Amino acid sequence: MYTGSAIGLIIVVDDEKYITDLLKYNLETERYGVTIVEKALDVKEMDLTPYHLAIVDAMDQPYSGYDLLRDMKNNPESSHIPVIILSHSDSQDDIIDAFDCGADDYVLKPFSLRELMARIRSVLRRHQVSGPVRPATKLSYRSLEVDLVNRQVRDDGMLLPLTKTEYAILVLLLKNKNKFFNRAQIFDEVWRDTERPANDRIVDTNISRLRKKLGAIADGLVNRTGEGYAFID
């Protein structure tokens, strides 16, 4: 990592060595400190708070670049870090999914180095112009307050004893108020690390338990036929 007089820190997550070598050389030439990681899963346990930008290959691994992007944007400690996705896929669905997950830019491989460097500078400039983004640490809904740092949920100050799964469902829906998620989408987000097939029943069971613990607030958690579940303002 370049540390002498680095003007910013960038993490590059890619398993194609010729690309990481190329990016490292050119970014360090522009005085950025660069960390190279080959596996997206290894980044999951890293402290990302010092970094100003992540360049992530979509990569075909069990834990993909898209998984890393979602986890970064769902983590209050890293949600403010801009992410550029690199990918061999020019599928419109993949591009839209990347932006929906929070990507700041999407660059096709093989890429023009000159264009990629310009895009990197543009993303960093936008981030700097807007000032450092303060990561969200709390979510609220009516009398409900979710502490994302300590993973605690309180209703009128009273701690609710949610399971890890119930908490994950609650956070997913509260972060996306007024947006409906069907059972398959909820399963994919909450049970992402499991290899079991999607299961509608387990989703419904956990949401039913969550409703009971939410009490009167549960009337805001709507189940609309053909669309799924959502918290409605």
Helix content: 25-40%
Alpha carbon gap, first and last residue: 47 Å
Class based on secondary structure composition and strand pairing:
alpha/beta
Order of helices and strands: EHEHEHEHEHEEEEHHHEE
Shape label:
elongated
Hey, roughly how much beta strand do the residues contain? 15-25%
What is the residue-averaged pLDDT? 88
Largest sheet: 5 strands, parallel
Rg is 20 Å
- Give the strand order, joined by hyphens, for the main sheet: 2-1-3-4-5
How many β-strand runs? Answer: 11
Overview in brief:
This protein has 233 residues and is of the alpha/beta class. It is built from eight helices and eleven strands.
3D structure, described in words:
- The relative contact order is 0.09.
- Helix 6 (164-175) packs across helix 8.
- The strands form 3 sheets. This protein has a 5-stranded parallel β-sheet, with helices on both faces.
- By secondary structure, it is α/β, with parallel strands linked by helices.
- The chain is elongated and about 60 Å long.
- Helices cover 38% and strands 21% of the residues.
- It is built from 8 helices and 11 strands.
- The protein has helices spanning 17-29, 40-44, 65-74, 92-100, 113-129, 164-175, 183-190, 200-214, and strands spanning 8-13, 32-37, 53-57, 83-87, 105-108, 138-141, 144-147, 152-155, 158-159, 221-224, 228-231.
- The longest helix has 17 residues, at 113-129.
- The chain starts with 7 loop residues before the first strand and ends with a strand.
